[in-house]
Amino acid sequence: MDASLTVAPTPIWLQVEPIRSVLRRLPVGVSDWLSPSERERYAGLRVASRANQFLAGHWLVREGLATRHGGEPRDWPLRERRSLPPLPEREDSPAQVSISHSGDWIAAAVADEPIGVDLEQRRPRAGLLAFAHLLRAEDDPPELDEDTLLQRWVIKEAWIKRHGFSALPERLARIALRRCAEAEATVRLWVGASFHLALACDVTGCIGAVAETGPCEAWLAVATDAEARDRAAARSEPAATSLLP
Predict the structure, then answer these.
(1) pTM attached to this predicted model
(2) Three-class SS state of 166
């Protein structure tokens, strides 16, 4: 059975569902709904699974834009940006989007402020153990299993995406994490049977439940002093680079 989530109270729209479910809703003829910059990017995707992820994510974002701001999904062409999420081409829209995919799942978020979403399918990831020292939160024990490290990863990755940075090792180490009350949260985490999902935003009290997951966990992600000093310089670096094994 397909599992999906929609969280659409103002001011954030968030959805996660199987890629195959989104692909079933695509209009016939990719060239009819992709913008020129999207068609150029799509043409360069030689692996079928990656092409399907691209189509699913870009259609799902259009559905979110139409839900939040009106019109039909086709009314929301997107402009591709190198190593950054796309933006709506409509000059009258303040909307910003974030897309993430992993395995059979796709997630998309829409808001009128910077946001970052990260989705990771749950599976063995022995390589994460090498990054444990970069991912631990306050009060974490010295040893963490792979799945807990993956949770920490999606929290930090969502925060990094929200700020438009890359997941470089030094940056991961400079983000301090701790559990917090909802009113303090900068990142929300959902732990599900198939995936972990994190959403980074500055809005409080507007995030609902996710189907087939536990309750939303509130986390505070804070840049250390060294990270804050590096932000201006980091704006010029390519973003959205992931080291996740």
Answers:
(1) 0.87
(2) coil
